[in-house]
Amino acid sequence: MATVKTKTVWFCKSCGNESPKWMGRCPACGEWNTMVEETVATGKKASVADRVPGAGQKPMPLSEIDSSVENRISLNNDEVDRILGGGLVEGSLVLIGGEPGIGKSTLSLQIPLNCPNLKTLYVTGEESARQVKLRASRIGGDDANCLIYSETLMENIIAEAKSIKPDLMVVDSVQTMFSQNVESSPGSVTQIKETAAMLLRFAKETGVPVILIGHITKEGSIAGPKILEHIVDVVLQFEGDNRGAYRLLRSIKNRFGSTSELAVFEMTGKGLREVSNPSEMLIPMHEEGLSGVAVSAMLDGTRPFLIEVQSLVSTAAYGTPQRSATGFDVRRLNMLLAVLEKRAGFKLSIKDVFLNMAGGLKVSDPACDLAVIAAVLSSNFDFAVPSDVCFAGEIGLSGEIRPVAQTDRRIIEAARLGFKRIFVSSFTALDGLEEQGVKGIEVVKVADVPALCRALFKAD
Ligand code: TYD
Ligand code: MG
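Above: inputs. Below: predicted complex with thymidine-5'-diphosphate.
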């Protein structure tokens, strides 16, 4: 008879790679200092011949498999429904990740309170039932159909869930849950994997959708959602500054819909409020004629919106000029500054350059290049970009302005918000804007950086 033995292995906290000995650098993901020690049980391996009778399904021909559309549950929250691809799919496991204090618990409590017709089992391992009640009354909900269960042992949770048969289950959080099958303490890599695997099995067997919460810290010091990404169906990640009011929920993985969708929320005194038109919120009000500000018509996921790019260029106080960017890649900023210097002759190598994307957004759309350059030049010359002008274009290394994806949608959004001029690449193919009802916006096509400067800063 096989006996259960334990052995010590090392796991990488960031990717879950297993190794028999400690290493300074994980060979799988290349991260430094991420290996943690854990004990795992071994020896109880079933041999191939030990087939479990009645377990699992029989292999089936592809042609006989039912492919009807999956059942989706609407959560009565347009932003969350949209980011999930049109509602929560039955039997799916959704991970909501984010730093502590960003609003994961608030959102996952708001979801059942918004859907009084769904019987929800809300498992809390972090807060007491009373704390959840206080939060619920703060949000303004009191739902008899939402059962609060304060427990951390996975075996009990699964048994309770199977007897209650809820329509939706929320587990807050994966780091506090533990299973008796695994020896290590809650929050360790093996416990997190086991918890997720048990919830996945429960979701698939019963068809109950499960929302699982996971923390990530800035330093990644807790074994976190990264290692869960392969297991779960959907990963939603909260971003933003948890001191600011706006929170962004991004879909990074979705087996039932498109990724790189973005939803915007505002944290108010009564929970999270959906911001259905992010453009209006991301462009803050300020006085006319401020230099160093340019608006970019960007696309996040499938959604166009306008964001303000702010820049400050000043003479370097010390020998080496500083370059700093918030929400934008510093290397890309350096590249753009080098293009300005080399291709357009602006002497920026002796200047400090600071760049900021308003609203705490992290931007990766190359179409923001043009607005970044316009903001930098505007601050450098102390010459304001008119407030009814916006930009969408990528800058190439030879200073040319390149067309970007879905320019027509960006123009439509800009026109809708009342912008009068948009600068795009002269290589953009645009037809049918009139048919789409775009009026009142002038599309200015520019070929390179000098042409942009002439068009933008000529006396007007
Ligand atoms: P929380 O959901 O507890 O964060 P997480 O579960 O991600 O750790 O949200 C925490 C913050 O939100 C907390 O600082 C208080 C604030 N908050 C509000 O501003 N308004 C509210 O209505 C609620 C419920 C919380
Ligand atoms: Mg919480």
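DSSP finds ten helices and 23 strands in the chain.
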